[in-house]
Automatic annotation (TrEMBL):
CDD domains: alpha_hydroxyacid_oxid_FMN. It comes from Pseudonocardia broussonetiae. The lineage of its organism: Bacteria, Bacillati, Actinomycetota, Actinomycetes, Pseudonocardiales. SUPFAM superfamilies: FMN-linked oxidoreductases. Its cofactor is FMN. This is Alpha-hydroxy-acid oxidizing protein. One of its GO terms (molecular function) is FMN binding. GO terms for cellular component: plasma membrane. FMN binds at residues 58-60, 87, 108, 136, 231, 253, 258, 286-290, 309-310. The keyword Glycoprotein does not apply. Keywords: Flavoprotein, FMN, Oxidoreductase. Glyoxylate binds at residues 110, 145, 255. Belongs to the FMN-dependent alpha-hydroxy acid dehydrogenase family.
């Protein structure tokens, strides 16, 4: 049940699959006899120095996967010299995650409820010292995650006839669930009426606000007052609007294939977004990153860093906080090895000349996008 919650995507999981496929459609143009004795990975994002170009992305309700919940990402980020983005849907409160680490983390806002609720959430994040805000805009409604429906996943999780044997065969997990703090949306307990136990989709649906527009984002950017990253951008047009509105960064993301099904892989649209706004704002790639080679490919296409979701959550499930740390370390080691093997002395030396693409790669918009200077992604029309 918990594995499916983390691993699964929406509907037929086409987008989930595309996120991984997109990486295998790019190959390295490896150069030899380059001095790769030094391979620095350090970079900055939203002004924050990062020891490696990997940020632990927001994931909510993670207490289900391990006792430390969202604090695992913050601790892992701090230990590895990077930062984590703490979900507003976290099961450990924003304040408790902040208290688990010395360095300020970043706050992810789901613009749920009305402006009063959104303002209250931002206030909690500000009071707890969060440095930057990541606004996730690809959840106007909840994606249809059929694995969760099939498993009867509820918040908090309840054992049902279907999952009984599954749960009983994992006594350590069950003991943690029963003895640890409850699984709930910790930041919302005083903001919305208690809903009791309910299906995940039903619970979230009561909080969503599909009426939000760019005007609301403009208000959020002004209200926050600090750096803002817009997460969930999948076109050049939307990236342009975000940049014009004052966002300092955009995360190219389809929510790890958990929301709309039938979207391209996140990496497939990275070039389009970088070409549109890469000179004005920082672009981050989110979705399907499992290996150091994936990070190197995204950076070569113009991303400044990658967000990871499932890798740190699986790390937590397998090995607690140490597991999340290990997930990031594995990526750091793999990025380092890849840079050496393709003849690139550090992440700053990466550019598109490090890559070859399969000729079939890319999606072609059927109409020229309105309101944006971005070029068609038709590979045959590229200069
Ligand atoms: C269990 C889980 C919970 C998530 N919760 C959130 C969330 O609360 N807010 C958010 O912006 N994205 C959330 N996401 C999406 C991730 O931030 C990220 O976009 C996605 O996982 C990236 O794909 P990857 O898992 O292939 O790395 C969640 C993802 C997972 C797996």
């Amino acid at each position: 049940m918990v594995f499916d919650f983390v691993d699964g995507g929406a509907e037929d999981e086409v987008t989930l699959t595309e996120n991984r496929r997109a990486f295998s459609d790019l190959a390295f143009r490896a150069r030899v006899l380059v001095d790769v004795a030094e391979r620095p990975q350090a970079t900055t994002l939203l002004g924050r120095p990062l020891a490696l170009p990997v940020v632990l992305g927001p994931a909510g309700l993670v207490r289900m996967a391990g006792r430390a919940g969202e604090a695992a990402a913050a601790v892992a980020a701090e230990r590895c010299g990077t930062v984590s983005v703490v979900s507003s849907g976290s099961s450990v409160s924003l304040a408790d995650v902040a208290a688990a680490v010395g360095e300020p983390q970043w706050f992810q806002l789901y613009p749920w409820g009305d402006r009063r609720t959104v303002r209250a959430l931002m206030g909690k994040a500000r009071d707890a010292g969060y440095e930057a805000m990541v606004v996730t805009v690809d959840v106007p409604v909840v994606g249809l995650r059929e694995r969760d429906l099939r498993n009867g996943l509820t918040v908090p999780p309840r054992v049902n006839p279907r999952t009984g044997a599954d749960v009983l065969s994992r006594p350590r997990w069950l003991a943690e669930l029963l003895t640890g703090p409850g699984v709930t949306f910790a930041n919302f307990t005083d903001l919305v009426p208690r809903t009791g136990t309910s299906g995940l989709a039903a619970m979230t649906a009561g909080l969503l606000n599909p009426g939000h527009t760019w005007a609301d984002l403009e208000w959020m950017v002004a209200e926050w007052g600090g750096p803002v990253m817009l997460k969930g951008v999948m076109t050049g047009e939307d990236a342009r609007r975000a940049a014009d509105l004052g966002c300092a960064a955009v995360a190219v993301s389809n929510h790890g294939g958990r929301q709309a099904d039938g979207l391209p892989g996140a990496l497939d649209v990275l070039e389009e977004v970088v070409d549109e706004v890469g000179r004005d704002v920082e672009v981050v790639l989110d979705g399907g990153v499992r290996r150091g080679t994936d990070v190197v490919k995204a950076l070569a296409l113009g991303a400044r860093a990658c967000l990871i979701g499932r890798p740190w959550v699986f790390g937590l499930a397998a090995g607690g906080v140490e597991g999340s740390v290990r997930a990031v370390e594995i990526l750091r080691e793999e990025i380092d090895r890849t840079l050496a093997l393709i003849g690139r002395p550090g992440v700053a030396s990466l550019d598109r000349s490090a890559l070859s693409a399969r000729p079939t790669r890319g999606w072609r918009p059927l109409a020229e996008p309105a309101g944006c200077a971005c070029r068609s992604t038709d590979p045959h029309r590229r200069s």
